[in-house]
Structure formats: C-alpha cells, structure tokens
Amino acid sequence: MTFKKTLLASLIGATLSLPLAASAQTDDITLRVAYDADPVSLDIHEQLSGGMLQLSHLTFDPLVRWTQDFDFEPRLATDWEQVDNTTMQMTLREGITFHSGNPFTAKDVVWTVERLKRSPDFKAIFDPVASITAVDDHTVEFKTKEPYPLLLNLATYIFPMDSEFYSGKTDSGKDKGEIVKNGNSYASTHISGTGPFKVTQRQQGVKVEFARFEDYWDDGSPGNVDHIVLTPISENATRVAALLSGDVDFIAPVPPNDLERVRADEDVKLVTMSGTRIILLHMNQDRVEAFKDPRVRQAIAYTINQKAIADRLMKGFATPAAQLSPEGYAGHNPELEPRYDLEKAKQLMKEAGYEDGFSITMMAPNNRYVNDAQIAQAVAAMLARINVKVDLKTLPKAQYWPEYDARAADLMLIGWHSDTEDSANFYQYLTECPNADTGAGQYNAGMYCNPEIDKIVAEANLETDRDKRSQMLQFVEQALYDDAAFIPLHWQDLAWAAQNEVQIEPVLNVMNFPYLGDVVVQQE
Amino acid sequence: MIAFLIKRLFHALLVMFIISVISFAIQDNLGDPIQQMVGQSVPESERATLREELGLNDPFLVQYLRFAKNALQFDFGYSYFFNEPTTEVILRHLPATLELVAAATFLIVTLSVPIGVYSAIKPRSPLSRLFMGVSIVGISIPVFLTAIVLIQIFSIGISITPFPEDIGWGSWLNGLLSTEGGMPAYGRGNDLTHVFGTWYTNYASWDSLVYLVLPAISLASIMLPLFIRLIRAEMLEVLQSDYVKFAKAKGISMRRIYFLHALKNTMLPVITVGGVQIGTLVAFTILTETVFQWPGMGLMFLDAIERSDIPLIITYLMVVGLIFVITNTLVDLIYGLVNPTVKLTGKPA
C-alpha cells in the first residue's frame, strides 16, 4: 500500500482497510492492549498500584490468586496448611524455572517476602508476618506475630522473584535487589519472573512489549497469545477510538460516556462488572460542630440519593452503596440499603436544632474517579434541600491529595479499594480513630472516632474462624451505618472492551488484574 | 551581526532564568510529587522520609540555589517519573514534536501562500469566497474537536444512509458520504526508522508517514486559516499601492507583478507573525499530541503535570522559553535577508 493511495483514498472517503488484526495471517498472535497508564517501573515492589499488579500478573505468578468469585486458586503454591494459630505451611509447585533459567525454590519465596517487608509500599500490609523460613526446597513456613486470618489474601501479593537474578552487585557497585523510589535501580530496569510473559522492550510512557515465555509451567493454561504490546493511552476518547478503528484489541478502562458507543459497535464487545472501589464522603467533625451530632450526620445520609447518582449521573455504571464492603467481602451486610428519605432528613435536622441549616465547604478531585466532580456537584445540590449550603471546590488529583491530607474542607470525597480484598482494610484507613503514630485512620477525613467499633475490628483481625469473623465485621458495618460515620455513595463499576475474537470474559475479575496469560484469541 | 547574536544569547539566558524562578515559586501549587510515587496506603512516616530524601522540605532559596548550581553545569535534575535526567527525557520526546510541527508547517506554507494570493488577486470569485468561509470555520473550531472529528471520519469510519440504499444512485451517494476509516488513530506506529541518537523518524517510510497525516492536519487547522487571511489582507493592501500601479502602467506582466514585486512585500509582516505563531504552535502541539497520543513533548508535559513531575515541568518550560527566543532570532535574521533596509544592530543604514 503506498502512501499516495492511502492519503487519497482516505481523503475522499473511499474504501480503505488496514488489516484489522495483523495476527490473522501469521501463526504468531499479537494482542495489542491500551490501558490508561503504563507501569511506572519493572520493579513490582516499587509501588503498590493497579498498574503494577497488572504487570505482576503478566510477568510473575503469585503463590495463590483470586478467582472471579473471591476464591483462592493455587498458582506457585499448590497446597497450604494451618499448623497452629500463628503458623502456616505452604507447599510449592516443583519443576518451575524463571525467565533467566534459574530454578524456582523455597528460597526465592523467602527472599521475596523479606523484600516485601522492606518495600515502603508493601511493608504495612506485610507487617503481620513475623518471619518466613524455607523448610525444604519446596515448602515454606509463615509465622505471624498474632493469629492472622488474612494470610492467603496476602499470598496473592507474593509474586516470587528470581532471588539469584536479583542478588549481587551491579557494575556500579549497587545492590541489585535494592528498592529505589526515585531514580533507577537494577530491579526497575531488569526483570525475571516465572510468569507467562517476558518483557522484550520497554519505552516508558510509550509502550511495553512482551513475548510469551517458552518454558512457562502452566500447561493447563488455554492462553494462545504470543506477543503483547501494551500502549498507554491516557486520553479517554482516543483509547476508545483506537479500539473502534481496530488499532488495538483490548482496552481498559472504558469511560462511562462511551459505554453506549462501544456496546453499539458490532465488531467489539463490552464487559462490565460491579467493582470493589467505594466512593464516599467524609464529614469533618473537627471543623464543623454540627457533624458531631449523629442526627445531623444521619440527616445528611437520608438526603443523599445514591440510586439517583448511580442511575442518572453514572448511567448505571455504579452500584449504590450503604456500606463500605462490596458483595463478596467478609463484612458485606446484605441488610443495609441506601436510605433516601427527605422528610426524615428534615425532621432529624429539626430535632438537632439545625432547621435553618448551615454553610460548609466541600472539596473533591476532578480527574481521579469516574465523574468525580459531577458527583460532588450533585451532592451539593442535594444538600441544599435540607438548607445546607455547600461551597464546592474541585481540583485535579495532583493538587487534591495535599488538600486531603491537610483536611482542608468540611466535606471531602474519596474512593477506596481494599488492598487485601477484605473489609478490615476499609476500617483501618477510613473509619478508625485517627492516630498519626500507628497510621490508623490515615484517610479518615471525618475525624470520626468510636473506640468501641475499633475494638471489635481489632478482635476480628485476630479471629481465624472465617464465619465468626464475618459476623463481627458485618456488625461493624451495621454500627457505622447507624452512626452515619460517613456517607457511602457507590461502588464504581469496571469496564473493559475488546475485539470480538479476543475472549476476555474468563480472564477478567473485579480486582482488575486481567489474567492475560490465559487469554484466548480466536482464529479463523 | 555577532553583537546581535550575543545580545540574543543573553536574552535567552535571562528568559530561562526568569522562567526557572517563576516555576520554582509555583511548584508548591503543582501538587505533591510524593503522592504520585507511593501507593495510597503508604503511611505518612514513609512519605516524610522520601520527602526529606528529595530535599522537598528545604526552604525555597536553598532548593533554588541547589537547582541553579546544577543547572549551570547543564544538570537540570531527574524526572520523578522517568528516573532519568530531564534533559534526556526531553531530548527523547523532542524529535516527535519537531516532526509533527514540520509536517504541519509544510501544510501551512504550501497551502496558505497559493490560496491567500489567489483570493487576493480574485477577491470576488466564488472559490475565494469559499476559501474565506471555510477559513472562518477553521479558526473557530478548537483543535481537539477537529482532531476527534478527523479520527471519527478517517480512523473509525462513518456510515450514513440518507439516500435509499436499494436504488443504484442512492447506494452510490451513501457510499460517497460514508467512510471506511482505517487511518491510524494514535501514536507514531511501530515502523520508525532510526536516524541518530534519540531521533527516530516517521518520514522514512510510507507506512509510518501515514501516522503523521491526521495529527499534522489537526495541528495545521488552527494556523492555516489564520495565514490564508493574513496573506490575503496584506496582498490586497500591497496591490493598492502606488508601485504596483506604476508597474502595471509600465506594462510589466501581471504574473511578474504578483509573484515577484507584490508577494515579496506581502511576506514581510507574514514572516514576523509566522515566527511568533510557530512558538504558539508549540502550545497547540500539547492539545494535538494529547488527542492522538503522539509521544512528543506536549503529551510528556501534560503527563508531567498530572504526575507532579516538577523537575520535568521546569525543564520543559525553560526549553520552550529557549525555543521562543531562537525562533524570534531566526525571524529577525530572515527579516534582514528579505528586507535589506532593516539593520539588526539597530543602526541606521
């Protein structure tokens, strides 16, 4: 195809078609993926973020991983056994090699967990682990400081790294295993895991290329993709256009405004799931005297119409919430429903002596969550009905978080995803009494403090009986609901889209780590 | 001449100094870079350590002097995101932007001069009126809208059926109005040719040249109408002047009058405006590159702002300041070549 022909043909709008999937002609299947951002580094312990975990699942394997319905699926660990209250033994899969050719053994797991405990981003969630030892080449033993019910949840974060590959010194005399947040390290530019794909080329901010690892251990994986090209396309409209024009095969996320457009297109398919990221509002009791009165907080809870926000503003792309824990989480209390009732709200305000309302300030990000600024505007409008006047300011996320840390407004919007896929993580960061020393309530911008509830959460965190623990956490959700500790809005949905021949449905999950190693591209 | 260049060199240094001071002064409002580096659940103590390591707690003057000392040795700091010297990051992104600007400039120059001259010579012809009408529309549409419309029409394709599909001529007309798409919608493609250093080019093969088409048209869409109107207005004025009337009376061929005598004088103000506008083009590349995910400096800058990558933001702003000074200097030099009565050093001829 010559340039002249292309230009001319396109300009007069005549027929022209680039091969839609270049994979069709050859045996090599290339999957072209466009995400909104690319991984910040090749060192999977450098940052705890969605993008880094997606990279981890491509190039490494976890000990266990989540299935679509919140079960644990054995990966590098084949079996696990609770020896006593604080000890767990895991049996590791045998006969696995890293990309470098080194064999995978228990010492790699030990090395990786010790490195996780040094990582600024991971050390907090790995704090409960006291020690890990290699019993033999294919067995490791975890010791926790106290009985800890979430060890398997943690194991989904353990992607064993090639300890031999990352040990020793670089030419410039630096430790190959060091974790450097700002600046280059060996691990941020070199990678060796056990995962289905190797990194073949990487240009930060432009693209990452992967090739299938020829000695991948999982023979049961149906995945047939040979190459992946990951391009970051941050502009929503362009990402969608790239999919619709056939320039890429798989995109995430699909922006809510384009859902209908993608759904209507016959060549591509859209997959949505109810997500686990809760969007909520904190009412700062230290800044506003009225928020100390539970009746005022309840009145606000009765004023906010979560269903209307989810249906109209989010166009159905959200699940209205009355609690923090989404369905499937241990603490999810099925009895809690959004409680929109304007009359009740007015009555409560009257009882509390605020019939004439008051004025507050509010801040929200405008490029962090889906429709975040519009949600904040809707909330401000709703609050006007009980005479609460809101002075709203929305900011880009880079400027918003410093304001959030300074608790700079009376009402602040935040979204939270539990790193452990467990309810207790929500309480630890969002509702516990703020304590700068322990880091509890780090994002509790409501300054809400109820030691009774914190005590139950602490007890639940030592309870290894899953049913009993679940009951305790559900009780906590109920208590927070009754007390209107915060205003939950909704769980943000997730959306992916792909060309029809890419079978993405089986590899997607609400954690938003597509298991691309298992993805199948249908061939004609 | 030499004196002029030395003077301009000092201008450049002064501009870069002022930009660096201003951007340093506002850096606190650009967001917290630490927030971008760590996960949300990282405790405050870890953040404080990192902040201290990066020297973000030092007073303004200390931070600035440290920066200035390094900058004098051409070390502008490390990008927080790329973990590389900012100058290297910019050098890597510069070729993409320059190639895009070159393509847009090519479109602007080759189209605006003939169209502008034509509509000045024949101001009442229907074609001139059409050009003027379209150019008004072109000036009014924001560049990102142009870009998205281009992507929809030429990358995704549109199918519209206002005419009956089952009749021959209807189907033919529908086909004429619909497009199949197929033009690349984003990026520079995978077939770039290496020239030297960090420079990979889109110009070396037809397949990669295709990637330039839509971004270049979008970028040109703002300036092209402006230049057409400017050239037309200047040319109309020149054609009214006495020397053109004399030339006509003298019996010189119209072609010679238009293209030699009149055009030369028309171009003087166009060059001045053009030089300034090429600087402005840098600003518009930010929008174009964002929509087309073109991996140039504009996209890099916008991403840097999102990530609060302060060293990269500051270096970018200084580089843009330098580009402005350089283009202005070049414009002045060219001006001197076109019009010998202008003396660069300011002394009378």
UniProtKB/TrEMBL annotation, chain A:
Record domain Solute-binding protein family: where: 72-436
Pfam families: SBP_bac_5
Lineage: superkingdom: Bacteria
Keywords: Signal, Transport
Cleavable signal peptide: 1-24
Family in the record: Belongs to the bacterial solute-binding protein 5 family.
Name of the protein in its database record: ABC transporter substrate-binding protein
Automatic annotation (TrEMBL), chain B:
Keywords from the UniProt entry: Cell membrane, Membrane, Transmembrane, Transmembrane helix, Transport
Organism field: Modicisalibacter luteus
Entry's localization field: Cell membrane
Database matches in InterPro entries: BPD_transp_1_N (IPR045621), MetI-like (IPR000515), MetI-like_sf (IPR035906)
One Pfam family here: BPD_transp_1_N
PROSITE patterns, A to Z: ABC_TM1
Keyword Transmembrane part of the UniProt annotation: yes
Keyword Transmembrane applies: yes
Main location: membrane
Family: Belongs to the binding-protein-dependent transport system permease family.
Transmembrane segment boundaries: 9-27, 100-118, 130-154, 209-231, 266-292, 312-338
Protein name: ABC transporter permease
Coiled coil location: none
Membrane protein topology class: Multi-pass membrane protein
Residues annotated as domain ABC transmembrane type-1: 94-335
